[in-house]
Amino acid sequence: MQLVTLPLFPTPPPSPAHTKVKLCQYEIPSEAMKLLSRGMKMTSATTEAEASALRAARAALEDGARRRDLYAARFRTLLWAEEHQMQVDIRHYDMEVRT
After folding, report:
1. How far apart are CA 67 and CA 60, in angstroms?
2. CA distance 89 to 91
3. Do residues 35 and 57 make contact, with C-beta atoms less than 8 angstroms apart?
4. Could you give the maximum distance between any two Cα atoms of the chain, in Å?
5. CA atoms of 36 and 15, how far apart (whole Å)
6. For the chain, domain boundaries
7. Which of 5, 22, 35, 37 counts the most CB atoms within 10 A of its CB?
8. What pTM was computed for the model?
């Protein structure tokens, strides 16, 4: 009689979820970058178009969870804000020029 041993944790076959997918570079629109860099606040340098975009972004953030028509705008604005904050945070790890 031949003894067959099975591994304790068999390796599952590779699934499509485990395949590598190259992600595209995602850029924050320049108008959104300006607003986020200013802390989503109006300044003396804010143009009327930027003020309008700022009002729309604030409305999406405040009402987007309750209103279906603003949900996508809210989510998009939150993603831009998160990406912007990640860019700011990563700069804290920049090293001075060392020789």
Report:
1. 9
2. 5
3. yes
4. 87
5. 39
6. 47-92
7. 35
8. 0.65
Q: How many CA atoms lie within 13 A of 35 on its CB side?
A: 22
For the chain, what's the residue count? 99
Identify whether the C-beta of residue 42 lies closer than 8 Å to the C-beta of residue 54.
yes
- Asked if 60 and 73 touch (Cβ cutoff 8 Å), the reply is yes
Examine the pLDDT at 10 and tell me if it is beyond 70.
no
Q: What is the pLDDT of residue 86?
A: 92
Amino acid at site 54: L
pLDDT tens, residue by residue, 67-99: 888 888 899 999 999 999 999 999 888 877 766
For residue 51, what are the CA distances in angstroms to 69, 74, 85?
A: 21, 17, 21
pLDDT digits (tens, 9 = 90+) for 23-68: 787 789 988 999 999 999 988 888 899 999 999 999 988 888 888 8
